[in-house]
Amino acid sequence: MTRRDVVFPAGRQALYERNRYSPAVRANGLLFVSGQVGSRPDGSPEPDLQAQVRLAFDNLNAVLAAAGCSFADVQDVTVYIVDPEANFEKIWAVVPEYWGEAPYPTLTGVGVTWLYGFQFEIKVVAKLPPATEGV
């Protein structure tokens, strides 16, 4: 069995080990990032929705940076939103702060009923810069 090339952002390894998943895995020139939520350092949800979205992006950016990437390297995005009818506009008001300029990555939005106490989750696939592949 091939050993996974796991990426851990600084200061969060214990959280991922406690919850038994990898924050990101490098494979074949791509970075597969687990869903990131607006969790505080102890893993608890940020209660304010827009602050939670900002923190989810901050957590995502920490994982990307740990792999030598940025949001500009993101090719595919999946977002999960609890009660999207009520929350989409509030969430999407924050997204341009992090999204960057066109051309944009692909996007799939999924409405869900439960996210472990969170209202928003973002999962991405990024292209690794050549110098970081297999690092």
From TrEMBL:
It comes from the Bacteria. Pfam families: Ribonuc_L-PSP. InterPro entries: RutC-like_sf, YjgF/YER057c/UK114, YjgH-like. This is Enamine deaminase RidA (YjgF/YER057c/UK114 family). It comes from Pelomonas aquatica. The lineage of its organism: Bacteria, Pseudomonadati, Pseudomonadota, Betaproteobacteria, Burkholderiales.
